[in-house]
């Protein structure tokens, strides 16, 4: 059954592979074959996931790999595969605390693993997302409550996230663009933006502005550069530089005009060129700066 699952998975028949792996685990739970089916079982659950329960089932399969010392030792490939994948699943499920704990353990145990870049990015984003949640909780805290403590925790996590995003940027920048595959380029671009976002959320607008400007130059021919211009405008407004904010809006509109429909088609962005034109028109007429 294990071999059948591997063949079907290699052929792209993920549902057939899932059925074979499940049967293998059910029939031979305490054998090497059954144990070796747990990782690909979890992988196919993730690949086919349509409901939250699918990720729960994937996580349960990985839990068996990680929590049963009779199956695999930490130095085994199966253990490292399970740990990295479990961190990814926690990230997908929005379980930021568990993602932080799991991905930190994975990076500590396997510092030279080829999955380090992805894991570092996901860990940084888990810190960022958890910091944003803490900021919301701080705003909603009653007077005399834990608001100040939550805000301090949020700032600490934003700083930790910023440092991790910088690790991703430093690892990718010397190889950008030709030395990175498409997914690595996505991590690089998002790390650039999220590092600046961490400074922005920490109200460090001058520092954030410098990073946004650097990112904007690197993304000048891409749709992903448009939100950067919005953040540049926001930074200038918060710094009280209204003339610079209006100049930034002008530059944003110029970049938008240079982007053709093909650029929007190849982008991960869901916004169309018309959407951005309407948004920039609204900013221009709103007299916000």
Number of helices in the DSSP assignment: 15
**Residue share in helices?**
over 70%
Gross morphology: globular
Uncertain runs are: none
Query: What is the straight-line distance between the termini?
Result: 66 Å
Pattern of helices and strands: HHHHHHHHHHHHHHH
Class derived from helix and strand content: mainly alpha
Question: TL;DR?
Answer:
The chain has helices at 2-10, 14-27, 32-36, 38-48, 52-67, 77-92, 96-109, 116-140, 147-172, 182-201, 205-218, 225-238, 242-258, 261-266, 273-285. It is mainly alpha-helical.
Task: Fill in the keyword field for this structure.
globular, 289 residues, 15 helices
Characterize the structure shown.
This protein is an all-alpha fold and 289 residues long. Among the domains are: 117-203; 215-289, no CATH class. It has helices at residues 2-10, 14-27, 32-36, 38-48, 52-67, 77-92, 96-109, 116-140, 147-172, 182-201, 205-218, 225-238, 242-258, 261-266, 273-285. The longest helix has 26 residues, at 147-172. The termini are far apart. The model has no long low-confidence stretch (mean pLDDT 93).
Topology:
Blueprint: H1 2-10, H2 14-27, H3 32-36, H4 38-48, H5 52-67, H6 77-92, H7 96-109, H8 116-140, H9 147-172, H10 182-201, H11 205-218, H12 225-238, H13 242-258, H14 261-266, H15 273-285
Helix pairs in contact: 1-2, 2-4, 4-5, 4-6, 5-6, 6-7, 6-8, 7-8, 8-9, 8-10, 9-10, 10-11, 11-12, 12-13, 13-15
């Amino acid at each position: 059954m294990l071999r059948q699952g591997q063949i079907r998975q290699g052929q792209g028949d993920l549902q057939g592979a899932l059925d074979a792996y499940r049967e293998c685990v059910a029939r031979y739970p305490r054998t090497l074959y059954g144990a070796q089916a747990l990782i690909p079982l979890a992988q196919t659950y993730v690949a086919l996931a349509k409901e939250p329960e699918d990720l729960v089932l994937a996580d349960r399969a990985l839990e068996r790999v990680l929590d049963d010392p009779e199956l695999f030792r930490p130095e085994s490939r199966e253990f490292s595969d399970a740990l990295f994948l479990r961190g990814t699943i926690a990230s997908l499920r929005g379980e930021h605390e568990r993602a932080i704990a799991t991905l930190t353990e994975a990076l500590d145990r396997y510092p030279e693993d080829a999955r380090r870049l992805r894991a570092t990015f996901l860990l940084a984003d888990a810190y960022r997302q958890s910091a944003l949640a803490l900021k919301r909780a701080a705003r909603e805290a009653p007077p005399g409550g834990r608001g100040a403590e939550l805000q301090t925790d949020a700032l600490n996590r934003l700083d930790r996230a910023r440092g991790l995003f910088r690790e991703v940027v430093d690892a990718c920048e010397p190889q950008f663009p030709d030395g990175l595959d498409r997914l690595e380029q996505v991590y690089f671009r998002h790390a650039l933006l999220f590092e600046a976002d961490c400074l922005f959320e920490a109200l460090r607008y001058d520092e954030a502005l410098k990073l946004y400007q650097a990112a904007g130059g690197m993304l000048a021919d891409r749709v992903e550069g448009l939100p950067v211009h919005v953040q540049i405008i926001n930074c200038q407004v918060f710094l009280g530089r209204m003339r610079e904010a209006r100049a930034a809006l002008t530059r944003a509109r110029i970049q938008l005009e240079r982007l053709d429909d093909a650029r929007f088609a190849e982008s991960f962005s869901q916004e169309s060129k018309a959407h951005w034109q309407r948004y920039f028109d609204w900013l221009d007429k709103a007299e916000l700066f």
